[in-house]
User: What shape does this take?
Amino acid sequence: MEQQNTTAQRRLPLINASTLPESTITELRRHEARERERLGLSPRQHWVESGIQAKFTRSERPNVTLLLGGLTRSHDRLIEGAFRGLGYGVRALDCPTYDALRVGKEFGNRGQCNPTYFTVGNLVSELTRIRDEEGLSIKEIVDKYVFLTAGACGPCRFGMYVTEYRKALRDAGFDGFRVLLFQQQGGLKQATGDDEGLQMNPKFFTALVQALLAGDAINALAYRIRPYEVTPGATNQAMDKAKDYCYDALLNGTSVLRALYRSRKHFASIQIDPLRVVPKVSIIGEFWAMTTEGDGNYHLQEFIEQEGGEVDIQIVTNWLLYNIWEVRFDTKQRAALRGTDGTNRGLQNMGEFGVLRRSLTLAAADRAVRLAFFAYARALGLRSYPLANMDKIAELAAPHYNNDLRGGEGHMEVGKVILNAVDKKSTMTLSVKPFGCMPSSGVSDGVQSLIVEKFPGTIFCAVETSGDGAVNFQSRVQMYLSKAKQSARDEFEKALEQHGLSAQAVRDYLKRHPSTSSALFVAPHRARTRVADLVHATAQGQVPTRTRLSNWLDERRQSLTNTVTGLSAQLRRGHEATNAQLKTDSSSSTLGVFAGATVAPAKKPAGARIAA
Amino acid sequence: MATVNEHFVIGMDVGSTTVKAIVLDASNQGRLLWHDYQRHHTQQPEKVLELLERILADLDCAENPSLRIFLTGSGAGPLVEPIGGKFVQEVNAVTAAVERLNPDVGSVIELGGQDAKIIIFKDDPNTGMRTAVASMNDKCASGTGATIDKCLIKVGATPEFATQLHFNSLKLHHVAAKCGVFAETDIVNLVKSGIPQDEVLNSLADAIVMQNLSVLTRGNTLRAKVALLGGPNTYLPFLLDCWRLRIPEVWHDRGYHPPNPAPVEQLVFVPDNSQLYAALGAAFVGIGEPSQIGRFLGLTPLREFISNGRRARLGAQAGPPLAANAQELDEFTRKYTHPRFAPPPIESGSVVRAVIGLDGGSTSSKAVLVGEDGTLLAKAYQLSKGNPIADTQELLAKLKSHVTAQGATLECLGFGVTGYAGTVLEECMLADVNIVETVAHMSSAVHYFGDVDVVCDIGGQDIKVLFLKNGDIQNFKLSNSCSAGNGMLLQAMADQFGLPVTQYADVAFQAELAPKFSYGCAVFLDTDRVNFQKEGFQKEELLAGLAQVLPKNVWQYVVQIPRLASLGRRFVLQGGTQYNLAAVKAQVDYIRQRVPDAEVLVHPHTGEAGALGAAFETLRRYKRSTATRFIGVDAALGLQYTTRNDESTQCHFCPNNCHRTFVDAQRPNGTIARTISGFSCEKGTVESEEAMLRVVAERKMLAGAHPNLVDYEGRKAFQHFYTPAPLPGPGTLIEDVEVKKGLFRITRRRFTRPFVRSAAADAAQRKTIRVGIPRVLNNYVVAPFLRTYFETLGIPKTNVVFSDPTTEALWLEGGKYGSIDPCFPSKVVQAHIHQLLFHAHQPERARPLKYLFFPILTQLPSFVTDTVDNASCPIVAGTPEVIRAAFTKEVNFFEQRGIEYVAPALTFTEPTLLAKRLFDTWGPRLNITEDESDFACTEAWKALKEFEADLEKRGEAILETVESENRLAILVLARPYHSDPGLNHGILEEFQALGYPILSVRSLPKSRSYLDRYYQDELDAGLIETPLQLSHLWPENYSANSAQKVWAANFAAHHPNVAVLDLSSFKCGHDAPTYGLIDSIIQTARTPAAMLHDLDANKPGGSLKIRVSTYAHSLQLRQEKLEELEQKTRELERSIAAKRSELLAGSPLMAGTFHEQLRATEQRAFDQRHLPADELQQPSRNAAAASGLIQLRRKPDLLSQVPANSSQSLSSAAE
Assistant: This one.
């Protein structure tokens, strides 16, 4: 077997080399080998993992296609564009289906969580398809394709999914197939070298982050508009256009901002019915289960929309911010200890200025992500979309869910439910996770039962996906969704009652202020639903007139475009210098994706005001 | 007769097994006009159509159906459109019905076919409005109608019996209700043990009720009055009684008092028409909707939907049928249809000399009559009736009459048994042979097919896959209690469709496509089935799809070896399920697809393979001894027996107080053979105290002779064994570090200063403080540290109080707080906290607990050198927060009991941070100085090291001994908390009793001086730098306990005298990724191994027995192999010595005679093997063994010489 190495079970030290002539020793060894064979005394064999060493080198790059996937459809497509723009051959895998799940289960270990089955099965299915339909031999597949995925280091079992990839690929006959990882917290430390096929340099991470943020902005806007669209499918059409524009920009290295700005008119032109009473459903839970848009969560987002809900998705940007928060929190906890510990969270060998350097880098990274997201959001027309305040979430969750506990979304699930209740961010919170999800089903849900008790009126629905029949899953969602719908109706009626308005009066008012018919329009946040916000805003005359809005837009549009275009140029120029600087900082465990952060302007950017 | 009325509203509940329909008159206060309740046998739309037709006819409105219709239930979704109705979610429907019909109800428990729902009505303090908190079972929970149905079949209870039985809490047995399959397995075991039907059903009811109360309520307390809904609650009085008993108990425990006290019959009740509530509720919701909503479209669109609509969209998502075309099917059936067994004729007047083999299976028993020459003469089959003796008598009667009917007489040469009923029959009928099923199946397959590679036996309950080499079992995989894919699955599915299982294949072969099921648990498959049915798949397609999932369950779920070709190419399929040709076809195709040149054989007597195996073994034995001890067929038929299960049979030898059953059979010689069942430990196997003491003494002796370091580790971790150094006096100079935080930099400066002590009064106060710590989870790793920390600070050792080890009683008493359902080790924590709160905390006796300390352990200490992290499992680490939530949710039990719950996050990989966190936590509470806390930390670390060193020393002594004696030790691969006897269910003792010492992962020696010799080649080749590394096998090794487990598996692979027992808990997420890894490691090295995965709350009785027996068989083979290896090694040594002499003949190097040389060489080889070069200088590596700490006895007869107290050597050394 290729992956096996042999060792002797017992060594027979019969041959004393110091006293015997060389020829005798040789003959004795030969004799021993013969005798061992005759007697069936074969050495014991031991297993070693052969799939670790395979490398992807620079010289192979022109002939190799990177396979990737695992986020939303928008993200996968844009990342494909971004990496193509960097000169890689790339193919995004389709969203995993039940067939992928079945393949994953065949080749994976029993008892895995289903994101592993779905994603591993998806890769094996694709390779099998390449083998059977494109007629490539296994060797050709191994030579011509590599799979790129984000790594994790636990502590839940999904962090071990690379073990599953290796096992499944080996068992499915794709021995030696390469799976490349970039660690979420590894930053530039990982896999940098002149001979590396995948150059994880600032350019790589900038392209990746651009794709992620643009994907987030497009998704967030689309989910916000779709439940109110008058013509079914209009939002998806606008979304497709936006993805095309951004894909081209990433591919050709032109401005993603401009692409988003171009997309904006498509979204703006969607006709909506702003007075639909639609409960807002905030989806939280396990990252993959809440992100995927296919069989992996029984098309949850689509299902909620069909059932008459608005989906408030978790964007990938928040996940990046959580990663930054983790390092920041851990560093802060250890900064003033009387000694330093030598593990991966310990601060050994950081030097006297190490903590400062890391804190600054992290603060800059956090700032840069927020700034870039707001710039993108602004350009696309995604207004009043606050990014998560990580410190606030941590603080709210801490009394119930220790901030040192990690795995999955950590304390964030609990923090978000409290935040949704306290800040009236949604009508209902839905926590979706794979069956037996360790951090979510095993810990968060246990704590949530207390949170629901402490914040009466919270509509909280925890559901597990297994990949088996969707009936029970959807039934549970429906159960809570009916409550949410009732709650949304109550809220709407209360808002009308509070201001002494009728629905028709609001409709008439909105007719008089046509800007409110724009799909991009958002009333100031006061209630859990969009429609109740609109009632409050109407009552207080906060719905801006077309003239005011147009003026405001005209002013801001120009200044924003200028700021952001300048910033992009700065970001690009800053890459080389930053790269060199960060490479020398071997102790940095900052997200590499924020390498460009050092050039973040000290001045408060235009976009940040929206967050404030 | 009502007339056409547009105020009529139809409510319909389309569930997973039944359809309920009602019609209300909205204009007449919702008067119920019409109702019916019918099983749909998976024909949901058809049944709905039938009911609608009847409604229209009965209400005389077929011509002008201006009705409205509202649907609810899991199958309603797709019907809404063709009917024109509106969908109402089930819980909302039930809520609406209850609010309207029983406004005084505080909670609802509804058990449906697949769903269990609990609704609790609460008053919202903000709005003052009544809100309903609802929860539904997760996919896993049983306690639903479907499970109860299946169990009723297993018990053989008639509907009359079940609907008249009343609950009796006096005789209850353990049934796991967590999962439907687990429950069924337990039920089968109870039935096989001869437990009467009523007790089995009562136990089932109790388990279901307790499961619902502890999990489904999500930690909420049910409010009175409680309405019970759904079929099981309505029709099964014993279930109702059980609710009425248990709900008030929970109320009492939680201090809840119903606002309007009333007799329990009124507080917990089944309302009229309870089975119709969902349908009624849907209609009530409908009445409230605007009149244009839910307009019934008439029957035409529904008929259209049934005939065409559903089918249209199935093609895309369906998979291929069982056979692509008729020709393929013909070929297959020709090849695999065995001719019906025609018993060879028996000559009238002859004497038939034959042996009888019997297989007492889980759902049926089989017997065969095999002639002296090995020919099968007759076979008999008997569906289990619940009593093994009665079943056997019927079988024997059938065999005998087969012979006598032909005018011949039967001379029975021997009687061999296998299967569940083996022990009883061996005892009372003096069977000659009682062999384990796996071996029986192996012998049978080998008898018919000679050299085969794989035997796959699929019985009613178990799947056994045996891998053979040279005609003997090389390795085996058995389904665990969780696994699906067994014969019962197909049987149950056939039942659901109202189809005899014998017609399964004929129907399934008719399918032109099949839904794609994914493998897994039977409960999940059933969910899938409901879903596919909803989508419109027909009976034949579902049956075909289920047959196709069977091989997936066998090969992917149970065997887990995707590369089937690596197993060989001759596969034998046997077991009753192979009568079902649909299953065989699916198996053959699956295997052929993966092993194109495979030869897939089906046993000619597939159902009787086990019985034949027993018969052949009996025959073999008879031929050798020409004698039998069997009491004879006639005596067996006339065997009188009584079954007793009452107060007198209860076992009082331990706190479990098992309700045992005595089956007394009177043998022909007048002696009574008593078989005892229903006990949970060895003590229950006897009746008198003397006998019990003898059993205990024997067990102790065995335990002493074969130490169990897992048990030792679990006990010692919580004992006081280390006396900490006293705190330094005030003024003692110590080294410290000054941390200065500047604007930009942080500097640390070392300096010396005096030790700071806290006030004497505080120290005195500390002597009175009692701290409770649960004996759970990773506290098994760090308990010596925690104990020593407190002891160093002056808390007396008796005041550091750990909860008791887990027992069933502990769990039953305290397991009612949970809101989630994780692995059992995490779930059982609540019971430990309960024990500390209500038993260890004794303020009335001036022994209060001041603190309950349950640290969040994020990282653990580990010996593996190259891990990426040493993280704890996230569930295990987070359990302290879950516990905090559970015990403070409605009532703050900590506050109520005057205890502070302390749960800081601690990491054991960062000592500085750990010390800081401990001081932050305990400084203000114990009034200690930071110096004192730091000093206590240092002492605590020392204690932990000493604990580990002691374990390793003992482990090394065992290894040295077994190696020098060519024996085997069993290494238990498990998480540290599996040392808890309540989690490992005493399984290790079963192996200990076989005569193998037990090692734990932590007890393996970690010194290079010990380890290097086993890894020498890898070290020499530069593949590894130290034996303690792991990344070359597993780079994703961040989970501390998993990494240590995998490392230990690799150690076992390197050590010739170590066999492996792998324990893993149900739902263990950190173990799952290691299954394949550990399997690869131990398979490559051919280390004997047994896996006991999916351990849960109850001891896996049935599956354990067969595993222990089969594993014992493998270990025996291994033991023989070790001896053979020793001989061969000797031979090799001799041969080399001879060769050496030959080569050196005449050389001056060759001094002395040949024989002297040979002896010298042998001696040198022996010394070298046992004392490698690098240790020759060391005084003695066997020091530990020699010092008398552990004396392993090799021969059983030596056991008698072991004084009773020597068995205590392990514990006494610690205590």
